[in-house]
């Protein structure tokens, strides 16, 4: 009983350990972004916001196609020119360097909704959205983070180059260059350029990523596994360039599409990867077979998928509920080549544009 009480005290003490530097920075960023909106609505040129949107897209691809689908989950492979481009884009997005981003994200997938999850959604919307960046990490995050295999990133010269020079690269690509583009090339004032293309663009991109951690873990359908918190959220999918199909993604984290569907309208990142695949710069695109998807839906889905509503599938569903097959749950796998990934899943995966 005394140990339990001590544990509660330690937990409460941890929750109140704020990182005031981050809080002050976030306060400035959001005030600056609001001022950027005011400037855009009153005196700034429309094209200035167009530049912000373009740069926001580039930064978004650095996160979604780069740090997330390529480096975190190894859902496809990229040749050096594409990796270099994605590294620059990811630096433009400024969400910590690739190595740290990937480590936190792999821990998130391995230990979802536990104390080891950096943005544990069980602690509420605000914490999982941005509060986790305002408090000290739980000790379990650091402990479990040290157990995640990062040898593939350590062997990638692009990732390690960015990590080494991040203190120089980040301010140049995230803040200085975006502010100088409208100023030098479009005749915009430096003040308008700074508050719109640097501040407003950066804050909007941050919230796009944060919504995947918060809203997509709290609201939406769970057609693939009703027993986990990640959900399919179409609003987040559109805002975050296709990252909102989160129930699917946590079940099959190694699918380069992060969704069952290949439509580009709600998954721009898939279009980006497919484009570079046609150029020969992205290859070994891994995805899940229809049979694997169907069986998982029938076994653990919430009934919202068309497969679940098909009465002819009921017999198969009953069979799957009683008999175990190789299409097992993958909730504790961070992606392709995770040591816990079943070899049968690799065997039945579909790989496009495969290179030896």
UniProtKB/TrEMBL annotation:
Molecular function per GO: iron ion binding; stearoyl-CoA 9-desaturase activity
Alphabetized UniProt keyword annotations: Fatty acid biosynthesis, Fatty acid metabolism, Iron, Lipid biosynthesis, Lipid metabolism, Membrane, Oxidoreductase, Transmembrane, Transmembrane helix
Cofactor(s) in the UniProt record: Fe(2+)
Location of the protein in the cell: Membrane
Gene Ontology CC: one annotated term: endoplasmic reticulum membrane
Location, primary (coarse class): membrane
GO biological process terms, semicolon-separated: unsaturated fatty acid biosynthetic process
Topology in membrane: Multi-pass membrane protein
Notes concerning its domains: The histidine box domains are involved in binding the catalytic metal ions.
Similarity comment: Belongs to the fatty acid desaturase type 1 family.
Identification of the protein by name: Fatty acid desaturase domain-containing protein
Species of provenance: Phlebotomus papatasi (Sandfly)
Lineage: Eukaryota, Metazoa, Ecdysozoa, Arthropoda, Hexapoda
């Amino acid at each position: 009983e005394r140990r339990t009480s001590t544990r509660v005290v330690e937990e409460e003490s941890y929750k109140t350990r704020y990182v005031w530097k981050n809080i002050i920075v976030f306060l400035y960023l959001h005030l600056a972004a609001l001022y950027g909106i005011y400037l855009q609505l009153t005196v700034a040129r429309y094209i200035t916001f167009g530049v912000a949107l373009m740069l926001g897209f580039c930064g978004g691809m650095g996160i979604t196609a780069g740090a997330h689908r390529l480096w975190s989950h190894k859902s496809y492979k990229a040749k050096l020119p594409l990796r270099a481009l994605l590294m620059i884009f990811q630096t433009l997005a400024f969400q910590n360097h690739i190595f740290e981003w990937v480590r936190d994200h792999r821990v998130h997938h391995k230990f979802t909704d536990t104390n080891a999850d950096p943005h544990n959604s069980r602690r509420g919307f605000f914490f999982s959205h941005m509060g986790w960046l305002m408090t000290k990490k739980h000790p379990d995050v650091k402990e479990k983070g040290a157990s995640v295999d990062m040898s593939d990133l350590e062997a990638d010269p692009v990732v390690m180059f960015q990590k080494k020079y991040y203190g120089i690269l980040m301010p140049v690509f995230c803040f200085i260059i975006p502010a100088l583009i409208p100023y030098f090339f479009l005749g915009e004032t430096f003040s308008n350029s700074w508050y719109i293309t640097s501040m407003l663009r950066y804050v909007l991109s941050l919230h796009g990523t944060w919504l995947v951690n918060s809203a997509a873990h709290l609201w939406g359908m769970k057609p693939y596994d009703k027993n986990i918190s990640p959900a399919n959220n179409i609003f987040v999918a559109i805002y975050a360039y296709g990252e909102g199909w989160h129930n699917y993604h946590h079940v099959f984290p190694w699918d380069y599409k992060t969704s069952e569907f290949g439509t580009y309208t709600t998954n721009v990142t898939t279009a980006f990867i497919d484009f570079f695949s046609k150029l020969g710069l992205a290859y070994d695109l891994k995805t899940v077979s229809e049979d694997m998807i169907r069986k998982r839906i029938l076994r653990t889905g919430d009934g919202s998928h068309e497969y679940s509503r098909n009465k002819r599938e009921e017999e198969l569903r009953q069979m799957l509920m009683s008999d175990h097959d190789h299409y097992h749950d993958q909730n504790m796998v961070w992606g392709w080549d995770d040591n816990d990934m079943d070899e049968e899943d690799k065997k039945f995966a579909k790989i496009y544009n495969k290179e030896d």
